[in-house]
Design brief:
The protein has 320 residues and is α/β, with parallel strands linked by helices. Helix content is 30%, strand content 18%. The protein binds threonylcarbamoyladenylate and magnesium ion.
Length: 320
């Protein structure tokens, strides 16, 4: 099987109704979608991704009124945040509704829920009517796809259809906010920061992304979002020295213009604004990975909150 790339929403809906998988665009990254209420379909996601079955999936819904079909004990703050950030790159962790099968929650009593801000994803969700389970459409631990051709390369031989929504706008995965405790906790960083959330809900928001004993979240595994080639994070001041020491072909991902003219240095210049950097990040990592080098050097980013989620992804990409 080789996936076709098209904008045929009806075809996607038909496949979902038959219990098949479809890759879908979202505002963050491409997702590998299945009917969330069909355990057999959801199991296919784990199989195709090579992902352990105890790692929960995010269920995508069309709007906030669907929350009660999937979650229970929903705190009022959920609605305040959804009103402000949905559709958008914010996932809530809530206690799952009693009837929800634990296949989709990785065996947990909680569930991840999000309404994505992408016209094709929203049209698909509306037409389908139910919840759609969708992790990022990449092999386990690999780089999330932000273009249809990335999905094709990752899992194109295992699915029938990739819904073509162009390049994803945001480019890194959603912020995940755990709302099951007294204080809202960030369990995966994204472009919606703790401060942005705290400003809206007028309440403290804790960042638990560096605490060891939080709920299982593959996005928090040390090695994740990783290219096949070894990647290394280096400071701006050491960059040129390390390039000069490396005698083989090398790729460099930097916000600066090329500093060397060596033909065996693949220099990939990145934008200097966090939003634009995130938008291009995974595509650029893939370019570096496919450029036939044995080392990817990534220049470190400023230690400011606006860059935190991107630094998080780079750190995991460079972990071995
Ligand atoms: O932007 C995104 O969130 C993308 C798009 C496709 O929506 N999806 C995505 O899914 O990144 P995935 O499966 O690659 O990552 C989902 C994250 C995982 O880290 C998972 O553990 C966490 O959500 N998650 C889901 N349900 C959870 C739960 N009940 N408790 C804790 N973490 C949960
Ligand atoms: Mg993922």
């Amino acid at each position: 099987m080789t996936a076709i790339i098209s904008q045929d929403i009806q075809h996607a809906v038909d496949l979902l109704r038959k219990g098949e998988l479809v890759a879908i665009p979202t505002d963050t990254v491409y997702g590998l979608a299945a009917d969330a209420s069909c355990p057999a379909a959801v199991k296919k996601i784990y199989h195709v991704k090579g992902r352990p079955s105890n790692q929960p999936l995010i269920v995508h819904i069309y709007n906030v009124s669907m929350l009660t079909q999937w979650a229970r004990q929903i705190p009022p703050i959920t609605y305040v945040l959804a009103e402000h950030f949905w559709p958008g790159a914010l996932t809530f962790i809530l206690p799952k509704a009693t009837q929800v099968n634990t296949v989709v929650t990785g065996g947990q009593d909680t569930i991840g829920l999000r309404c994505p801000n992408h016209p094709l994803a929203l049209a698909l969700l509306r037409q389908f009517g139910g919840g759609v389970a969708a992790p990022s459409a990449n092999r386990f631990r690999h780089i999330s796809p932000t273009k249809p051709k990335h999905v094709l390369r990752e899992i194109g031989d295992k699915i029938a259809l990739i819904l073509d929504g162009g390049q994803c706008d945001i480019g890194i995965e959603s912020t995940i906010l755990d709302l099951t405790g007294v204080t809202p906790c960030i369990v995966r960083q994204g472009m919606i920061s703790a401060k942005m959330i705290a400003d809206v809900c007028q309440q403290d928001v804790v960042d638990k992304t560096h605490v060891a004993d939080r709920p299982a979240a593959p996005g928090n595994l040390a090695v994740h979002y990783a290219p096949d080639t070894q990647a290394k994070l280096v400071s701006s001041t050491k960059l040129i020295q390390i390039i000069n020491q490396h005698k083989q072909k090398i790729a460099v991902i930097s916000r600066q213009q090329p500093m060397v003219t060596r033909e065996d240095v693949v220099w990939l210049t990145m934008p200097d604004h966090p939003r634009d950097y995130a938008h291009h990040l995974y595509d650029t990592l893939r370019q570096a990975d496919e450029s036939g080098v044995d080392l990817i050097l990534i220049e470190e980013l400023p230690q400011q909150m606006a860059w935190a989620a991107i630094t998080d992804r780079l750190t995991r990409a460079a972990q071995r």
